Amino acid sequence: MRKRSIATNDPHIQALARIVGERAILYRKEDLMAYDCDGFTVHRHLPKAVVFPTSTEQVAAVVRYCHEHDLPFLARGAGTGLSGGAIPLNGEVVISLTRMKRLLHVDLENRRAVVEPGFVNLKLTNSVAHRGYYYAPDPSSQYCCTIGGNVAENAGGAHCLKYGVTTNHILGLEVVLPNGEVIEIGGNGVPDPPGYDLLGLLTGSEGTLGIVTKITVRLLKNPEAKQTVLAYFDEVEDASQTVSDIISAGIVPAALEMMDQTAIEAVEAAAFPVGHPKDIAALLLIEVDGISAGIDEQIDDILAICRRHHVREVKVAQSEEERARWWANRKTGFGAMGAISPDYLVQDGVIPRSRLPEVLREIANISRKYGLRIANIFHAGDGNLHPLVLFDASKPGETERALAAGSECLKACAAVGGSITGEHGVGIEKKEEMRFIFTDEEILAQTAIRDVFNPKNLLNAGKLFPTPGRCVETKMPSTVK
Amino acid sequence: MLSLTWIEELQEFLHPEQIKRNDSFHPLGNDGAVTVYPQAEEEIAAVLRYADQSGKKVFIAGRGTKRGFGGQREQADILLSLEHYAGIVEHAAADMTVTVKAGTVFGDLQRALAPYRQKVALDPFWPDEATIGGVIAANDSGPKRLGYGSARDSVIGLRIVYPNGTVIRSGGKVVKNVAGYDMNKLFIGAMGTLGVLSEITLKLRPLAKYESVVLLSFPSGDVHDIRSFAVSFLDTMMEPVCFELFNPTLAERLTGRPVYTLAIGFEDVENAVHYQEQWVERLRPKAAEMAVLAGEEAAAFWRTFNTVAPNGRLAQAENGIEAAVKIGVVNLDVLSILRESVLIADRCHVRIEAHGGLGHGLCQAYVHGSEEGVLAAMEELRQAAVRLGGYAIVKHLPFSLRQRIDVWGGKPSYFFLLEGIKRKIDPNKTINDQRFIGGI
Amino acid sequence: MMSTMTNERADSPACATASLGNYRFGDLPDPSKWADCVHCGMCLESCPTYEQTGEEQHSPRGRVHLMKSVGEGKLELTPDLLDPIFTCLDCRACTTACPADVDVGGLIEQVRGQLRQAVPLAGWKALVSDVFLKGIFPHPSRLDWLGRLLKLYQKSGLQTLARKTGMLRMMPDHLAEMEAILPSVGTPVRRKYKHQPLIKAKGETKRTVAILTGCVMDVMFSDINEATIRVLTHNGNDVVIVPNQTCCGALHVHAGDRETGRKLAKQNIEAFQDVDYIIVNAAGCGCMLKEYPELFRNDPEWHEKAERFAAKVEDVSKFLHDTGFKPPKAELNVRLTYHDACHLAHGQGIRKEPRALIESIPGVEMVAMPNADRCCGSAGIYNLTHPEMAQAVLESKMQNVPQDVELISMGNPGCMLQMALGVMKHGRNQKIVHTVQLLDWAYQKEEGKDVRI
């Protein structure tokens, strides 16, 4: 919090500083370098500046300035995105929303809250927990990721199997359009606002259609009862089959997570070990919730299914503390890779649940082919795989090999009728892989929508869609000189 | 009858039996000089391509239950009916997804899934007549939206035939997917103005093992009693799949008693359902009377309920006009709307049957009366909704009256975006021209 | 003053000429520390400075990224790097939050060493640093002298005079505020027990322990040192005060002056070589002592000595807890809350032990403080070097201090001063106490003494 005065002659920096104030802009290389990537570190590029608006008006004024002066710009929350959505590929002005972090309104009777985009996901649940409510989308980064970023990426999480992803919980948005105009969709959160579902379209648009400045979200009441089961398997196939059988038995678990041996090695070597046996092939973390009177029946069914598939050991959490420990171990799984590998690349393919065994086999083949270890931590219940390709960026060529291996994992998902991303977004990382699942015409249909909102393509350009020709990453939007 | 020489051109890609000339027009409008019945996606594409290139207008219909919903034109050149484009494409039971052709009758789909103990988690009106395509295009939902969400929460993939005949896929067959824009959302509730839904992929839910509906009637008529019960019940950890309030007029039709009545639905294992019924019993105001319909009784209750809305396939009411209004407000404001519905019915000398979900904020009001009475009542309902920060749109009204009231209730401030989207996808306004908000 | 640095670089001979990206001075940062960071961002919300600014370069992840960038040759050691690197409170909360156990604090200290050499302090900051960090803290006699001066100031009426005449207004605000909460100075235990190097245990002697008297601690908080001695002896420990001990060097290492840090470390390692237990009542010092090996990464001989030394160090609360302290029998009827000093909770992983000590006292009602392990902004002399940020951090901390308690307990003197400042600024009346003081009072009461809290 040093006192700053603007020590540059750059007129754009000076103008932006006049909008947000001298203490709300960064432009020195030493500061900017902290913004050259987000949770996806393969690509790095310096922004032109970072501004920290504190109001919708300031966001709109910055956007208007950029729009008028053809400066590329993008919005950033906590920068935990895993696909590079907040990387300033084109030397963007980064609009950081971390200072717009107020909880504006809570209305428990109508089960909703209004937050600013920089409000941290978990803080919302913490703010209403004393009354027995929570905000359902729970990405693993929920300790620090912002709800604005969740909207941009349509974030999921471990519990979206039963409760849905971000888009299922957004009731209203205030949005600054790429020309600086401010619109409000859904007003105070009335259902089905007449017109095309722009809430649905904007959610998950990866910051390419507008910048969200106010969000009305749905809150849920805590389930009356919750039970968590941990099951250890000697064969991956048995674990996969257990997943399928649980689902087809008509049980809708709140969460159904799987980790394979390599992943278990990492989480056990990291900060939140649980004491999982090292020699099991896979574990399942299964949570059911709902009415207390019905929950034992579900647990009995689940235990029976696990046993039918040769589970080595299965246990029900005996306390909230134990349950929390299991979840902390799972939720810090990605970061835990740091404990067994200098770098990792996480993929996010989705497959129809029933194809789990064959796709896992294919991923094992890919691992062998590229000589890189691949850990699997994933939301098995919705078929959302997270192969974590472990590599060492300091070894020449290994980054490229890891990227190729990751891409091949996605190809395997696409081949069984799946998707290349379930919750991390396309960003920079998977834009070429969009071709695995969409035709040129389908991609054009999407860019046509972008052009309605973002005709100059100054807002977060170069993301989400494959561009014809190579070296797209370094290509500037057409309007930039 | 005009000479429609171009009709023969349709025969280049349709069998003559798939083409039908219309001599008179439907009083609900949204009709066509000819109706075509494609049976394959390529035929849908061919019709649209032909129309787009030759400047013809196309209206899209399933089986016509929503014919009275929107639309400023009595007829287009072609009415594209998907009635004969029906059937399940793929039911992946283990993955709990189904892909179905748009013209499939909703009830047929549910019946096909039932042996697998699975269902589409939507409860639209007239399920045995409405097609899945129409339900999705009009974004229809019923009381159980509280527990299961609406179309946007169930649809995971679409095949859409664009006005120029191109087939576009959005989403996919997996339950979780953020690749590219969530284009599914754009077409759900778009009233067919952006493309013809061809195939729809939905995620499924298991059929509940047990079901009941608790009917709680409030003879006092005091809305405050209902409110305080609702607030305390919704603050418990019970999980009703619906929490729908009927106004006295509708309650009379459904239960025989003209008093405000709450229908609280539970779907779970039997133990859990009874347990929740006991919670209602414990929290209910002493004056409120409680009845429980279980199993088949509950199902039968919903079957009746699902036919209270006007249906565009049925003959017009003989004595007076029938209209349906959809009102969106913030959850508990549904109480105010239902209360207003009673007062407005009195003031405008019409009959209004209304219901609304206190947990989701949507109300439906079915207005029956003279032309002027119905128009006035709809206007008043809209004003009441707007005062509460909500909206009212007219879901069913004869064509002649749709000229006299803006059924969509004006344009939002961001209308230029809606217009822009329409222009990108359908620059020639080939399909469902003027069917939707602001005349798009 | 930094010229001595370059002369002494020979101290770490192996790396004297090596470089790592743009790190060019001896004692290079350890690249494996940043290699563990996968940029997941789990640390962000744990960071008090990020909470205040929302700026990535003021977050653990951002700082690690910048430090790594220097190592990759993408950034230079320039004056503009001072702000991100030196605004860190070194509170270690990020290390607790990190799924991969990245040692952000250790890395920050290493890089500060580099940066201080590349960008030497100048002007009054250099002067202050020279006077305090080199001229006073390492020299007990000078500190003692300063303490006597301070005592004179407080007792002679000068303090009253200064406060009345408004002389204080001539000082920067934050210094004037600090003046207001200075504890009254007692007699340092080092002076008091100068001729009595061993204080016998009450009853049977179970073991003999040495205490680190600390530098500022012994001057400003000699009563806590006294309490520590009483509590230790009460629990069967003979206490020795080894004569040649000195300042732990934490402030120097935090400031990037690793050379002085090493000098002090060596002196302490030698001073304490004959004892089995080194008991510390200041979390910051204890953490530093345990991390001495970090200072000698390139010096195998001293590294080994430091390892042996570090293994003997324990915080007084954990030591008492682990050696089976006697639960007090007398009641202290008081409502209190507990603040986790960063270098206790995050730095040494000590959370439950001090709470267990407090809760063992009959009549004590413990009220949980939300985010109890959030930094208070004291951070050594941070509240002097970064007053504005320290103030903002304190402000956030105070929001979480329960209103309805009489005492706030903690295990670090720096925090005690800062929290006292917070209490004063918020017009509250809570007293700030050290955990061992509570135990001491209870024991005293048990012995029939009249204890007034």
From TrEMBL, chain A:
It comes from the Bacteria. Its cofactor is FAD. Keywords: FAD, Flavoprotein, Oxidoreductase. Residues 43-222 form the FAD-binding PCMH-type domain. PANTHER family: GLYCOLATE OXIDASE SUBUNIT GLCD (PTHR42934:SF1). This is FAD-binding oxidoreductase. It comes from Geobacillus jurassicus.
TrEMBL record, chain B:
Residues 28-207 form the FAD-binding PCMH-type domain. Keywords: FAD, Flavoprotein, Oxidoreductase. It comes from the Bacteria. Gene3D superfamilies: 3.30.465.10. InterPro entries: FAD-bd_PCMH (IPR016166), FAD-bd_PCMH-like_sf (IPR036318), FAD-bd_PCMH_sub2 (IPR016169), FAD-linked_Oxase-like_C (IPR016164), Oxid_FAD_bind_N (IPR006094). This is FAD-binding oxidoreductase. It comes from Geobacillus jurassicus.
From TrEMBL, chain C:
It holds the Pfam family CCG. Coiled coil: none annotated. SUPFAM superfamilies: alpha-helical ferredoxin (SSF46548). Residues 25-57, 78-102 form the 4Fe-4S ferredoxin-type domain. Binds 2 [4Fe-4S] clusters. It catalyses: glycolate + A = glyoxylate + AH2; (R)-lactate + A = pyruvate + AH2. Its EC number is 1.1.99.14. The keyword Iron applies. Its cofactor is [4Fe-4S] cluster. Keywords: 4Fe-4S, Electron transport, Iron, Iron-sulfur, Metal-binding, Repeat, Transport. Component of a complex that catalyzes the oxidation of glycolate to glyoxylate. This is Glycolate oxidase iron-sulfur subunit. It comes from Geobacillus jurassicus.
